[in-house]
Amino acid sequence: MKFLSLLLCVLLVKLSYSQNTDAQLQKEAKRRLKQLSTEEKIAQTCQLTLDAVLKVDEKGRVLEPLQLDEVKLKEVIKTNNVGSILNVSSHNLDLKTWATITAKVHQFYQLGETKTPVLYGVDAIHGANYVIGGTLFPQEIGLAATWNPALAEEMGKITAYETRASGVPWNFSPVLDLGRQPLWSRYFETLGEDPFLVSKMGQGLVKGYQGKSFDDPYTVLSCMKHFVGYSYPNSGRDRTPAWIPERQMEELFLPPFKSAVEAGALSVMINSGDVNGIPGHINHHLITEVLKNRWGFKGFAVSDWEDFRMLHTVHKVAKDQKEAIILAFNAGVDMSMVPYYTTYSEYLKLFKEAVDEGRISKKRLDDAVARILFVKLKLGLYKKQVYNSDLYLKFGSQEFKNAARAAAQESITLLKNDNNLLPLSKNERILLIGEAADNLIFQNGAWTHTWQGVDTAYNTVGALTIRQAFEKQIGAKNLHFEKGYDLSLVDGWETCNLLDVNWLKIEAKMADKIVVCLGEMPATEKPGDIRSLNLPVAYVKLIQELASTGKRIVLVTMFGKPRIVREIEPFATAVFNGYLPGDYGSEALVDLVYGKENPSGKLPFTYPKYDGVIEHYDYTNAEAKSGKNELNQAHDPQWPFGFGMSYTSFSYTNLKLSKNAIQGENDFITAEITVTNTGKTKGKETVQWYITDDFASIAPANKRLKDFEKIELNPGESKTVSFKISTSSLEFVGLDNKWISEKGSFTISVGGQKGSFELK
Ligand code: BGC
Question: What's the structural domain count of the chain?
Fold first, then answer.
């Protein structure tokens, strides 16, 4: 009965939404735009943080438990018609509180007190991380290691469901910035170093968030971020300058955003840093010419946190706040994350002056607001009733947890397994060491319950730490746990102290194997800045001392970025890279350790061996040259991009090309490879297709990922996988910074097999 009424509810909600085309909605947006005064239009471009409408004490601190300040709320939404609210306050909230907040925000429109509904947005970046009981998935860097876009879509779907369950229809995700600077504090938020992998996984997330249509009450608007080049700061520090030549911008950094636009993403957040000296928020070329005009992006662009103001206070490109608004808005940013109560009236006032003075044209204002209204219409926000809590019975369900665990399972990457040490036998006595194994914050990283994710008070009840997951799997009597080290932040910098290592060595004697779990303090954005990828000295000492006992060590790392493990890796017989696997990553890990599941994660980045040598897999031939290496193989990472081991083995045979030349634009070659599971265990393998342009007018990359497919094979089973090579697979950005293809010879490689063909 309950099921039937739920079904009825879903159908009614679906029917109550109109089935209009984009063109009709854009027309409708323009009609509604005409009903707004200039002030009301300007207010649509203004976004405030939730704290702006919460009750505070005499020192301005938000009161706990949170209470909406009805007077401020009325002033902001009813009197001043502010168009958008974002964020959570300092920590996560339960569904009921979210429902109350979002209902009150929407109420002014429902009562006819404003003409335009408010759009609420939040960062649900690895699941509904700001809703108590929300299902937490691996962070994006781990998700990328699954090389499985279907899992990204599933994560997107569940995150959308649980975010919408809190009444919020807009998610500031995915991050599509390329992970090519591992020092950057937000590296873990990226989908790795390769534009093709990022594009495919990013598209999976966008499709999952947005579904087929927003008529579906389980979808949210996705927000691509951070357009573009944010992830590549020279210094490694957050929001500092990047220098990206036009060719690299076009070939590497832009494609993931273009793919997301093609997948239907309708909002974008702008890069807070500057690229080639131009702050992201005033880059007219990228925002207006490339994104909006060239790619036909129909949605709207929102600034990042306080970034209009920062054009004056930080970047120093605007002499005052009014000029900052003018520069950003005229560059094509449609909405400003203002986001404080203290500054929003000034924003509205200065904006109006700029319009009156003709420094922001009415046309530009109309274009921005029409885009915002179009998205609000598309999301169905103009319906009086946009939210029905009865629809979300699967929130936090076992089904969702299982999906998060499955994603973690496919992400955790086996990087070393000498003499097949793994899987372990359940009868062995394990000494498990590491603070990171005993607290969920180390599995989850930042953006978990709180912004920085450090406060343990909000850890998900019922989710298991690695220690608990081991205990569940092998029983308390076979497990001895020691913290081993103490991680903390001292003056904001990660600090690690080694605890009594002699005691650990005594304990080691009584164990069959040692599992050491190393993590890092959760952090993001500026608080997450680091100075080096090297490990704390305490970690190196810990592993070396433990190795001196002669007991074999399984090393588990949970790092959001590739920390340098060169000095400790030789002391470990097996190594798992867990990334930040989320609340259910611990159980996934233990299933892998004991062989209940077979590892299939593959690195989404080139794992550097040295702190000072950051390399990428698509290096050029010149980069491989070295005076110190006769073989000229200077490219020498700890582990290569795309690498990851399994408990079974796969052979690649019979690489066949349907012909050996492509004759012009519409022609193509079909490449085929047979992959066989030659081991004794069922397993998943990611077939990776790379192409090398043998000679080109621009120094060609040693190889470029062009396609991949994850397959599952039983022992002895074979599958033939194919890939269609067309001219578009051979294109690169040429001398005049335009995409071109050049005639000549190419090499295709897959699983160690190589073939040649020509473009005629
Ligand atoms: C971050 C964005 C985030 C925004 C809203 C900013 O500081 O850079 O990624 O979406 O805050 O929370």
Answer: 2
